[in-house]
Amino acid sequence: MDSRLPELLARIADALDRLAPPPPAPADLHAADAFVWAPEPPRLAPVPQVARVGIGLLQGVERQKTILLENTLRFARGLPANNAMLWGARGMGKSSLVKAAHAEANAATPGSLALVEIHREDIRTLPDLLNVLRGQDRRCLLLCDDLSFEREDADYKALKSVLDGGIEGRPENVLFYATSNRRHLMPRDMIENERSTAINPSEATEEKVSLSDRFGLWIGFHNCDQPTFFAMVDAYAAAFRLPIERDALRAGAAEWSVTRGGRSGRVAWQFIQDLAGRLGVRTDRA
User: Most buried of 219, 221, 272, 284 (most Cβ within 10 A)?
Assistant: First the structure.
C-alpha cells in the first residue's frame, strides 16, 4: 500500500485539476473598441458594432456635449479627467452622448479608448472588473446606464469605495461614466428613512448623498421644448435624406409627440424611424 500511495495521490491531484475551472484568459482590450462585462464567468464580451448616433445629431444638449467631450478627449490623450454622472430627463440622450463621445475620442486619437458597459445588476462586481482592467495598456471608459439604487440595496457602498476610495483606488487607465434619472441615485424616501432611523441623521443623509459627490462632473439633462424637438427631427431627417417637406415633417412630429405624451430625443428618434419606414428609406446607411 505504501508503494502505491504516491501514484494514488498523483491520480487524485490529476482528477482535481480536471474538475477545477481553467484560469480566465487575460482580457484582450484590442480585440474590439467596445465590450460588455460578464461577471460569471468573468470575461469581457466584444461588441463588433456599437449602437450609436453621431455626436452632431444630438440636438438641444450643446453645453452637455462640450463638457463631456472635452473630458473624454483629455482622458483619451492620457491626461487627468473626472468620473461623470449624467442625470436628468428620460430620453434626452445621456447614454447616446457617452457612446458618441467615445467614438469621437477614438477618431481623434485612434485606438486610444475602449468602451466597457457594466449592467446595473452587476455593479457589485465592479471591483472584479477593475482588477481585470488594472495595468492594461489601453484606456477604458466604463459605462453604467440607468444607474440607481433602491431600498435594502447595499451595492452603492461598493461603487462609492471604487470611485475614489479604497487602498488601491481607481486604476489610472479607467474612467467611470454613469447615467441616471436621479440626481442623487437614490429615492428620497430611502434617504429620509435613513435619516429617521440613524443615531446621527445628518451623517446618514451625507452617506447617501456623498455617492453622487464622488463624481467630479455632474451633467444635467432637462425636458425638451418644442423648438428643440423640431431641431432634433430636422437633423435626423437631413442626415437620412428623407424626402419630405419641412412643414409636413414638423406637423407629423408634433402629432407623434402628442400621441406619446411628451417630447424628447428618444421620441424624435422613434418618429424618424416610423417615418423612414413609411417612406421606404433605410436609416442604417446614413
Answer: 272
211 and 235 both lie in a single domain: no
Assess whether pLDDT exceeds 90 at residue 3: no
Residues 286, 273: Cα–Cα separation, whole Å: 13
Q: Answer yes or no: is 27 within a domain.
A: no
Q: Report how far residue 182's alpha carbon sits from residue 152's, in angstroms, rounded to the nearest whole number.
A: 17
Give yes or no: residues 52 and 191 share one domain.
yes
| Side chain identity at residue 261, one-letter code | G
Contact 177, 216 (CB under 8 A): no
Higher pLDDT among residues 160 and 198, named by residue:
160
Range of the domain at 161: 34-221
Residue 77 located in a structural domain: yes
Q: pLDDT, tens digit, for every residue of 181-236? A: 877 776 655 545 545 554 555 555 555 556 777 888 999 999 899 999 999 999 99
- Domain end call among 177, 206, 221: 221
Backbone angles phi, psi at 89, to 5 degrees: -60, 145
Q: What's the whole-number average pLDDT of the chain?
A: 84
Within this chain, do residues 51 and 189 fall inside the same structural domain, yes or no? yes
Count structural domains, the chain. Answer: 2
Q: Single out the residue in 173, 202, 221 at which a domain terminates.
A: 221
Output the pLDDT for position 170.
Answer: 78
228 CA to centre of own chain: 24
Peptide bond into 6 cis (omega under 30): no
Sign of CA dihedral 218, 56, 116, 29: negative
Terminal Cα distance for the chain, rounded: 77
C-alpha span between 37 and 255 (Å, rounded):
40
List the strands of the sheet with 113-117, edge to edge: 42-46, 34-39, 113-117, 139-144, 174-180, 84-88, 217-221
